[in-house]
Amino acid sequence: MNYKIRKANTKDMLQVLKLINELAVFEKEPNAVDVTEAELKKKGFGNNPEFDCFVAEANRKVIGIALTYTRFSTWKGTVLHLEDLIVSENMRGYGVGSALLDQVILNGAEMGVKRICWEVIDWNNPAIDFYERKGARVMRDWNIVQLDADGIKNYISKIK
Length: 160
Fold this sequence. Notes:
alpha+beta; Aminopeptidase; five-stranded mixed beta sheet; 5 helices; 5 strands
């Protein structure tokens, strides 16, 4: 399988969105994706991009992505967050995920971050095994905490 890893551009965003939707289906949340191609283009490019994206491309088709952004840790300073590493299901097993993760780690090192972090759903054992084989520490004693749009509205209604 011949593919190349490169920085994404605006023309890739429709294919990126398709992979995001593929991941949502895989994670049993097929209706959870609200982001649009237009929003990906607006938020990922221009003067103040909110994320970076690397794509794996084969035969002019995006077969995988790694989407990252920086955040600030009170313990470490600037850290890199890997929001999603997605490889199209029919392209798994060719080293695409490893190549994308390699690019993320190299990019983080070049940026001088002290930590690179991400989440993995607890039932995705192949992904957990993959990350552990790469040397990542899967912290099973931490829980992710979120407020969705409705949760934000409910919260605000209780403090006003």
